[in-house]
Amino acid sequence: xxxxxxxxxxxxxxxxxxxxxxxxxxxxxxxxxxxxxxxxxxxxxxxxxxxxxxxxxxxxxxxxxxxxxxxxxxxxxxxxxxxxxxxxxxxxxxxxxxxxxxxxxxxxxxxxxxxxxxxxxxxxxxxxxxxxxxxxxxxxxxxxxxxxxxxxxxxxxxxxxxxxxxxxxxxxxxxxxxxxxxxxxxxxxxxxxxxxxxxxxxxxxxxxxxxxxxxxxxxxxxxxxxxxxxxxxxxxxxxxxxxxxxxxxxxxxxxxxxxxxxxxxxxxxxxxxxxxxxxxxxxxxxxxxxxxxxxxxxxxxxxxxxxxxxxxxxxxxxxxxxxxxxxxxxxxxxxxxxxxxxxxxxxxxxxxxxxxxxxxxxxxxxxxxxxxxxxxxxxxxxxxxxxxxxxxxxxxxxxxxxxxxxxxxxxxxxxxxxxxxxxxxxxxxxxxxxxxxxxxxxxxxxxxxxxx
Length: 452
Prior knowledge:
Blueprint: E1 2-9, E2 16-21, E3 27-32, E4 36-41, E5 54-55, E6 60-63, E7 68-73, E8 86-91, E9 96-100, H1 106-111, E10 132-134, E11 137-138, E12 143-144, E13 149-151, E14 158-163, E15 166-171, E16 185-188, E17 208-213, E18 223-228, E19 232-237, E20 243-249, H2 251-257, E21 264-269, E22 275-280, E23 283-290, E24 296-306, E25 314-318, E26 326-331, E27 336-343, E28 348-350, E29 354-357, E30 363-368, E31 374-379, E32 383-386, H3 387-397, H4 405-417, E33 424-427, E34 432-438
Parallel strand pairs: 1-5, 24-28
Antiparallel strand pairs: 1-34, 2-3, 3-4, 4-6, 7-8, 8-9, 9-10, 11-12, 13-14, 14-15, 15-16, 17-18, 18-19, 19-20, 21-22, 22-23, 23-24, 25-26, 26-27, 27-29, 30-31, 31-34, 32-33
């Protein structure tokens, strides 16, 4: 069904954490464990036939002082219009920054190349300055609130950020005005945080870790869906000053389906806007809710192994042909990608329609092109290896098998006096970004060589 167009391999100690696609589908943004955001532009010859995958290199690299928890690109991003090529980043203990996707700094981009090991760590003055900064500060402590989720919906005049027990709206249309760097409007998810009850059971308590805007509104405000680490869902009407429409917990539904879960990492509206897909960490499935009526569980998408605390995000696409409904594409922790078709036309437990092995490590993100013929996937996961155990096993294997019994007794005595220190080494099985073609019958042999 699919075969690979392009490969991009990073260093063995760098892991891709996040993948984001621009609105026009021409640009991919990746966030890695090295606090770098790489920008990849898909070539015009993407759909031309070829015998083997080509190497995909980053067009620009942005290095941030802290890890990035969320990325949101401009909703009217267009490769032919430089003024629209901007995106937002949310880093720990820093404001929300607006950056240009292709900063004009050749010397900086060359020094920050991901394939260069000889360059030292850059100074703070070497970082490209952001175009604008937006501050979300707790008044009582004057500390920056942690941004766990970020969306920039159409028409693009405002963006929405999720943090602890609140949702904040910023005005991005006039970043030169000092007042616009503060939240334009704040939506509390609980009535009050001054008491231990944290709202007395009203609303949804916890960090807003997932946000998504309703696709049915192209102009002006609409509904947004929010999810928290405490496994709560909420619907808010931005056209009514963020009025809460409904809140409920996904724990009962996931318990009945037996898929587990330990916090919502992603909420996705279906392309038609009728259903809501909920993606949790440490879960073996996805929940699909019908939002048109009583917000009841419609289906459970099973057959996906995501038993990990790592974020494994998904994507949705309109259904085609006689199947109808919509499709859900999700990665697994074992390197596979599973696809469910016809969602919305079925109830109960739904098994994957088809799947394929895309990577050798956990697939952190899947992003489909609006044409439906191209999908991008990224992988990366850490494994911890005890070097003492490996060295001890090697010494046992290399011992002389013809040694006498007395020598063996001396070796046992010496080994008893040995002092072992615990040393752990981090290993990344594979970290790569791949762009796939959908619809081919036979995949060609891929070149797994590393570019670094």
